[in-house]
Amino acid sequence: MANDTAQNLFDRLVGGVDQDDDLSADARKAEPRNALRHIASLSMTKVADGLIDPKLILSWLLTALGAPAVYAGALVPIRESGALLPQILLATWVQNMQRRKWAWVVGSAGQGLFAALIVLAALTLEGAAAGVAICAALAGLALCRAACSVSYKDILGKTVGKSRRGSITGTAGSAASAGVVVLAILLMSGMFESTGVVIAAIALAACLWGAAALLFSTLVEMKSDPENASRASFSILKEDSNLRRYILVRGLLVSTALAPPYFVILSGGEDQSALGQLGALVLASALASFLSSYVWGRMSDSSSRKVLMLTGIVGAVAMLGAVALAAAGLATQVWAMPLVLFILMIAYHGVRQGRSTYLVDMSPEDQRSAYAAVSNTVIGVLLLVAGIAGGGAALFGPVVTLVLFAAMAVGAAIAAIGLREVERTD
């Protein structure tokens, strides 16, 4: 009965199963149950990500705790680069495992532990001490996130068929966003004008990561042969021109992740409480994810290349829309920046779906961890470079910065035209 229920739910989510895929017979038999475990585990971790978002939640918390601004400014680089740069080293550890799910389990549990340490620091420290402690805990969380990231592409490829992966991860994204919407509404309601609700949200994130680790440990994963696994090496870049182009596209699309703070600068928003502003930002991101993640996932199953092209254009339209509103003197209107930020976040979630699906479907079966590690390490470096470039452009104001980022997004869409199609289109 349980198996039939899982099969029915799975079929509804993916629109039926094409038996001509890249899974073994045993893996295909376990696929429906595994897919539901993927959705539940990813949903919990994505909710946790939203509850501890460095761009919004942690930066607000550090400000509330009286930490110098330099610590809040360090949060996003620590989180993003810390989750990407170590992957080239972690890949060998993952590839030596017969069942790679344990790397993800350890990474998820570790994120829960470091989130709990952030809660402890917020409850006991203030000022610079809180800034140092929270940044250090976030660095540990980012390292654990790197373990999850470098292993997940491989696990997903082993347990879910090629034509269904985007649907599964997209469903998780949409489901998770509903939970984050609740937090946003609480923040906007004015019922909790204190740091207590933010700290409680981070504590909940810690619990969710722990629960996700427990659930993911029950995944049915076929054994891998470590002897046949390709070791992560930058020589892959010389051998695969399509991977180089993919990294170029993904690198240019980091503009969609770096642009939101400049929307906030343009919006002003002095007429709202600090927590109300925070709630509006969280709500815009969560609603964009809720409405678009599943759709982007299904589109990625058809052609993740086209998703990357489209998201570049949509992201550029949102950024140039913000510039146009600023030029027209409308940027501080209550509806203006939330509208274009919402459109930008739709593009951002499309980028996440498209890039993940493309990398898994592009990579040879025995090289998924290697491809993920190499590409993510390079992107970590490019993210730092793009962040520095954006910081330099910021000296000329948010409008100049957004024009630069829009040009990057358009460049990504153009570069994606030359990517190889990696999904079946029949």
Write the layout of secondary structure elements.
Layout: H1 2-14, H2 25-51, H3 54-64, H4 69-84, H5 87-95, H6 101-124, H7 127-159, H8 165-189, H9 196-216, H10 235-239, H11 241-252, H12 255-258, H13 260-267, H14 274-327, H15 336-362, H16 368-394, H17 398-416
SS content category: mainly alpha
Radius of gyration: 21 Å
Q: In total, how many domains does the architecture comprise?
A: 1
Order of H and E elements: HHHHHHHHHHHHHHHHH
Binned, the helix content reads: over 70%
> Quick one: biggest sheet?
none
- Assign the CATH class: Mainly Alpha
| CATH H-level superfamily title | MFS general substrate transporter like domains
State the low-pLDDT regions, or none: none
Count of DSSP-assigned helices: 17
| Global outline | globular
Molecular structure report:
The chain is mainly α. The two termini are 34 Å apart. α7 runs antiparallel to α16, α8 (165-189) packs across α14 and α13 (260-267) runs antiparallel to α15. It is globular and about 60 Å long. 79% of the residues lie in helices and 0% in strands.
Task: Give the tags.
426 residues; Growth Hormone, Chain: A; globular
Summarize the structure.
The protein has 17 helices and no strands. With 426 residues, the protein is an all-alpha fold.
